[in-house]
Amino acid sequence: MSIDLAMAAAPPRRVPQARNALPNSPLNPLAARHHHAAVHISNVATAPMPTTTLSTASHLANLERLLEKQKQEFPDPPVPAPVKINHDGDHDAPSSSRCNRLLQALNLTSAIFPAGRFSNKPAGAEEMSPRSLTRLRRLLSNSNRASPRGSIAGGWRRFHGAGDWEGLLEPLNDDLRRELVRHGEFVQATYHAFHSTSAPPGRPRHVLLPDRSYRVTRNLFATASIELPPWVDTVAPWVMAAHPTSWIGYVAVCENEREIRRMGRRDIVIALRGTSTCLEWAENFRTELVPLDEEEVETDEQGPSTSVPKVECGFRSLYKTPGLGDTPSLSAAVVEEVKKLRKEYSGEELSITVVGHSLGAALAVLVADEVATLVPPEQAATAVFTFGGPRVGNRAFAERVEKRGVKVLRVVNAHDVVPCVPAAPLRKRDEGYAHVGRELVVDNRSSPYLRPDADPACCHDLEAYLHLVDGFTAAGRPFREDAKRSLARLLSQQGANIKKLYLSQAQELRLKQAAESFGRCNSGQLASPSSTF
């Protein structure tokens, strides 16, 4: 029973401590093991040495048995094999355990907590508390954990615009934030439905709604009437061959009784996407102001007047032009569907929420202006939530929308250029464009994840908007610490605009690929070019 003296003389092996256990804590089994070993060694050292030649070898043998016994009682924690990443991003680790290992290795402490609490030195995953690791896994997971939606039955009219959202925007009310994000996801569903199929633009779409309490009752289409010059057929023949009518959104109604009780009314949603076709782009550049209604055209022909409500020519074209065959215009389809739903749910408390992004935001204002003439505010409150919407018409039009009782809340990124167009002419301010309703300004530079020099596409992207709304508290205040919106979708759609610290680690640990797969398989929406006008 001997022991290698060279091994005994070697420096002791460094034993890792258990996570979250203090080095000398009695709750640390490894520390307890070393403590018992130290006691026995001390006893050996202080015991009177026998005069016989029992020798050092016997003492070492006893010590070896003692350590072997302690090792059986308190085995060392297994040390995982290192994950090797080659230039192609492939791992040597098994795929089943790769995801958990990657998340444990990732360090985003400075992004999860406010700046200034931690040094600039990167910290390993073992230095993060279990609570922060859990938060990190959730933020990078493939699903959103929406904030708990409490009952708003008693005050839903305030969140729907009664009082012009006074006292709800600074700081942003939690219930209003949830309503904004929830309705913004209805718009994301339009991008998903339009871009996830190879069907012609003018065909109906199957919409996967993010809220199962709602049911789609009608598909909506918009038709362009612009006449392109002949030379376009030579330069870009696909533009001339493009179908003038495109699917642009839908009407949905809440049918879940529990959700109706929570909201305090039955909600009708009209959701509209942004620019996605060449002809829609062409319509966007028809920026002259024209009367919206036929009777107003006659008034304007008698002499230009700043009191005549006017809107951008391209927006009016997409809203009023009927499609080929029996396809009605966007205006006619909305009027018909609202009349039908109003009759079907007569006697109930109703609300009409029109929501859109970019071009869809402009069309949403036109829709709400017309819907208000069909359903007075006392019968159904009409509100508009827009994200990155451009100016729609002149001051006379804005005043008419407000007089009809329509409440408009525009969410605007301070660095998004789209809300600044079309620009007012240099002649007279009254003859130019004017925004409608209240404005909630968010700032992509307040996000701890987005680069401060994010490009214009990111500043206008719908997912970036929802990310900023979810983290917004008030102007000049830091990003909300308990924001719950997933970062995976933002990473998949705006990877080039994520701060390098997070992007490089995410790419190295293959979280970018996981985020891209989330965008493809998530049932709520698909990664889509929502950063267009």
Automatic annotation (TrEMBL):
Gene Ontology MF terms: phospholipase activity
Every copy of the Fungal lipase-type domain together lies at 269-423
Q: Which domain of life is it from?
A: Eukaryota
Q: Name one GO biological process term.
A: lipid catabolic process
Q: Where is the composition biased (Low complexity)?
A: 1-21
Q: Which InterPro entries match?
A: Fungal_lipase-type (IPR002921)
Q: Which Pfam families match?
A: Lipase_3 (PF01764)
Give the matching PANTHER family.
OS08G0143600 PROTEIN (PTHR31403:SF65), PHOSPHOLIPASE A1-IBETA2, CHLOROPLASTIC (PTHR31403)
The entry sums up its family as follows: Belongs to the AB hydrolase superfamily. Lipase family.
Specify the protein name.
Fungal lipase-type domain-containing protein
Tell me what organism the protein belongs to. Zingiber officinale (Ginger)
**Upper lineage:** Eukaryota, Viridiplantae, Streptophyta, Embryophyta, Tracheophyta
